[in-house]
Amino acid sequence: MQTLSRPTLRALALLSLLMSPTAFAEERDELSQASENDSVFPRWIALSVRGGYLMPGGMMEDDAVSPVYLYEVYKGLFAAILEPTFRIGSHVEVGPWLQVSYAQMRVQCSRDEVCPGRNRRFGLQANVHWNAQGPYSPWLGLAVGHDRSSFSLPDVEATYSGLDFTFQAGFDKNLAGPFWAGLFISGTGGQYDTLKVDSGTESAQGGVRGRAIHLWIGFGFRLRLAAPIPAHQS
Question: How far are the Cα atoms of 125, 168, 231, 233 from residue 191, in angstroms, in the given order?
C-alpha cells in the first residue's frame, strides 16, 4: 500500500484547516439569512389596511308614507378598513375586519348646515389569492358584516343597523419582502332590520317595518404585510 509523504500530509492538513472555517462560515451565513427571512413576518398571518371611498344606493326604509333613501342621507363615506387574516394553505385567507368612516352627509339640519352622521361596519371575510409568491397577486373575496348607520336631526338621532354581504376583488404588488400595495373594488348589499330613535331624554328601538335593500359601492387602495409564499409551496 502506497503511503503519503510527510510534506504531503502537512499540506493536506493545512489545506483542511484553511477550508473548514470558510465552509462553516458560509453555511452559518446561509442558515442565518434563511432564519432572518423567516423571522421578518410569519407566513401564517397577514395584516392589511385599506383606505377608500364608498358611494350609497338603495333605501334605508321603504315606508309607504315617507321612504328613506340612503343616498338622500349620505353623500358617501371616506372609509378605513383594518383586516388581520389567517392563511389556510397558500391561497385562502380568513379573518375579521373593522371599518370606520368619515361620513359626508346630504340631509340638512338647517338651510346652511348638514346633519352629522356616522357609519361603522365589522364582520368576517374569506379571500382567495392567486400567485401569492408575487410579484403581482390578484384576489377575490366575500365578506359578511354588520352595518350601523346613524344620523342626527335637530331633535332626534336615528340609528339603522343590519346585516350586509360584500363581494370584493383587487390585486397587490410586492414592493419588497413582506410589503405589498394594491387597489380594490367592492360591492355591498344589505338590509337594515333594526331602528333605534333617541331624543336625548327618551329612546325607543324596534324593527324596521318597510325593509329594503341598500348598497355601498367602494374603491380604493390597500397596504399589506404578508410574507411571500415560496414558489414550491404555491
Answer: 18, 18, 42, 41
Check whether residue 32 and residue 51 sit in a common domain.
Answer: no
Per residue in 137-146, pLDDT tens?
Answer: 999 999 999 9
* pLDDT tens-digit readout, 60-69: 999 867 888 9
Structurally, the chain folds into a number of domains equal to 2
Using CA atoms, how far apart are residues 96 and 170, in angstroms rounded to an integer?
18
Domain range for 19 is 7-40
Cell of 140: 377575490
pTM given for the model: 0.78
C-alpha cell at 33: 439569512
Distance of CA 179 to CAs 13, 43, 51, 83, 133, Å?
48, 13, 16, 15, 12
Exposed/middle/buried for residue 176 (C-beta within 10 Å: 0-12, 13-18, 19+): exposed
The grid cell for 184 is 380594490
Same domain, 35 and 142: no
Q: E-strand spans in the chain?
A: 45-61, 68-69, 74-88, 92-105, 108-110, 113-114, 117-129, 136-152, 157-176, 179-191, 194-198, 203-207, 213-225
